[in-house]
Amino acid sequence: MSNDLAPGESGLLVRSLVAGPLENNVYLAACPATGRALLIDPADDAARILEMTAGWEVGGILLTHGHQDHLGAAVAVTRALGAPLRLHPADAGLAGLASALPLADGERIACGGHALEVLHTPGHTPGSVCFLAGGTLFSGDTLFPGGPGATEGPAAFAAVMASLRRRLFTLPDDTQVLPGHGPATTLGAERPYLDEWERRGW
């Protein structure tokens, strides 16, 4: 069973389900006017993901980063839907998906009458990205309620904090954050804790 989320300023219908042992969020961003959609992070359980996409024309399968818990169903879902799989090239070796097409920072990926903008936000992994659609941000593991995702050492932690300060937290406070794990939040709810996260370190 999937859940429908409020579309916010993006105008997109967002559906989600939780899949896999690490309780990953899988998202479908869909344009009701055209029936076109994009799938984000097909973590696990291809059958349930395909059930969520039924009735939509999926034009792409987007990965926020190359960790295996976010892409366990990627190959099966890509084959079933015939849609291109997309990943930032800095995570290509990490994911082990030779068939993935590259995502580029600033690229706008069409979704019917709407688009998702790719924001490269390195730190959790070198190729971590977020997807921005109006007032909705699909943040992967770059940002959760309560801070950034885990990093491998001080340099990676510095990188993710830079991504947060220079890319994500330049967006409005009412931006809805849909993370790779856990409940939704907003940038306004998280903004007061940036300095605390910095002090906490990796």
Characterise this structure:
The structure is a single chain. By secondary structure, this protein is an alpha/beta fold. It has a single domain, classed as Metallo-beta-lactamase, Chain A (4-Layer Sandwich), CATH 3.60.15.10. 22% of the residues lie in helices and 30% in strands. It has six helices and 13 strands. A seven-stranded mixed beta sheet has the order 1-2-3-4-5-6-7. Strands 8-9-10-11-12-13 form a six-stranded mixed beta sheet. Strand 10 and strand 11 form a beta hairpin. Helix 1 packs parallel to helix 2. The radius of gyration is 16 Å and the shape is globular. The model has no long low-confidence stretch (mean pLDDT 94).
Distance between termini? 35 Å
Name of the CATH class: Alpha Beta
Helix content: 10-25%
Largest sheet: 7 strands, mixed
Lateral strand order in the biggest sheet: 1-2-3-4-5-6-7
Structural class: alpha/beta
* Gross geometry: globular
CATH architecture: 4-Layer Sandwich
Task: Tell me how many strands there are.
Answer: 13
SSE run: EEEEHEHEHEEEEEHEEHH
Tell me, rounded to a whole number, the average pLDDT: 94
Total number of distinct structural domains: 1
